[in-house]
Amino acid sequence: MLWFKCSEIIPGVSIGIAFLAVCVSAILFYLDLEVPKDKDRICVMAEAAESNLEEYKKKNMNAFVVGYTGEVGKALVKHLAQVKPFQKVYLLGRREVTLDVEDPSYFEQKSVDFEKLEESSDLFKGIGVGFCALGTTKAKAGAKGFVQVDHDFVVKTAEVAKAAGCEHFNLVSSQGADKNSSFLYTKTKGQAEEAIKAMAYQRYSIFRPGVLLCDRQESRAGESFVRFLLKPVAALFPTAISTPVDVLVKAMINNVIATPDKAKDFELYENKAIHMLGGNLKSSCSEKTKVDSAPEK
Ligand SMILES: NC(=O)c1ccc[n+]([C@@H]2O[C@H](COP(=O)([O-])OP(=O)(O)OC[C@H]3O[C@@H](n4cnc5c(N)ncnc54)[C@H](OP(=O)(O)O)[C@@H]3O)[C@@H](O)[C@H]2O)c1
């Protein structure tokens, strides 16, 4: 009897699973193939970043990083230590850490209280470029705590930095960020993006990575499970829904040092664009594209 029922059910379930797998694969394939609207500009910028580094260094800009003790922040610090595009980098956070870099003197750590960030406004003076990789999770901080960090602290940082003279703000947001979303995570990210946009920075760059691929020290059961499931997806469709942190931070730095005439006052990099700007998709930036592309004004 049981065998009879199973034999009836199993083919249906198998067809259902196979159909679902085909649909998911088609979506991932589409996402992986998607070409950013301003692909030409991004390709030119990725290449220009290498050749323009020495020129950029002559500007003697200073930078700050908030969220530097997190996964993106640590990778950013490592990359900055290698490239050294700035005169000095100020690391602002709620705690000081031992930096895993060869020359820690390139950095200066300062403790701040994000709830009273105005009191630390002097620390932002003379800093032209800011990077924000602050963030937490609902599981860790609760819904209120999550909004406080991912929206309030992020927006406050941008506000205080701008008042102190920061010209270029770089925000690590997330794939799917949308101020009208019904999901707390994507809604909060979208609202933070919008609030900073209204500040009219001289230059504002938003990065929306997919699931970050990194060796996270902190254990996050849900995220680890997603990352485990993502391994084959990331191998087959590398730019669809995942982003290695190294690629993300390279894109962030390339974006800053690429020649100013390739820059815009507002830039929004979705996941595929991050891969391109981070030099992860050199083959997609064909020779023809480079020659044909005129810098956008
Ligand atoms: N994880 C993903 O797959 C993923 C995907 C897309 C986008 N993102 C976004 O990318 C950004 C960086 O992610 P991540 O994985 O690097 O984050 P992370 O490892 O959790 O690091 C977050 C940073 O924010 C700081 N922070 C958290 N709560 C704080 C608080 N209450 N007060 C002061 N500082 C606080 C942390 O400081 P402490 O070290 O002191 O805690 C740390 O420096 C986040 O905005 C995240 O939402 C993540």
Please trace the helix and strand order, writing H or E for each element: HHEHEEEHEHEEHEHEHH
Number of domains: 1
User: CATH class, anyone?
Assistant: Alpha Beta
Biggest sheet layout:
7 strands, parallel
Alpha-carbon distance between the two ends:
73 Å
Strand content: 5-15%
Number of strands: 9
Biggest sheet strand order reads: 3-2-1-4-5-6-9
Mean pLDDT: 88
In the CATH classification, which architecture applies? 3-Layer(aba) Sandwich
Molecular shape: globular
> What's the CATH topology name?
Rossmann fold
Helix fraction, binned, reads: 40-55%
Features:
297 residues; alpha/beta; Rossmann fold; 9 strands; disordered C terminus; binds NADP nicotinamide-adenine-dinucleotide phosphate
What's the helix and strand layout?
Blueprint: H1 2-33, H2 39-57, E1 62-66, H3 71-83, E2 88-93, E3 107-111, E4 129-132, H4 138-163, E5 168-172, H5 184-197, E6 203-207, E7 211-213, H6 221-236, E8 242-244, H7 245-257, E9 266-269, H8 271-277, H9 287-292
Parallel strand pairs: 1-2, 1-4, 2-3, 4-5, 5-6, 6-9, 7-8
Helix pairs in contact: 2-7, 3-7, 4-5, 7-8
NADP nicotinamide-adenine-dinucleotide phosphate binds at residues 67-73, 93-95, 114, 133-136, 149-150, 172, 174, 209, 211-212, 223.
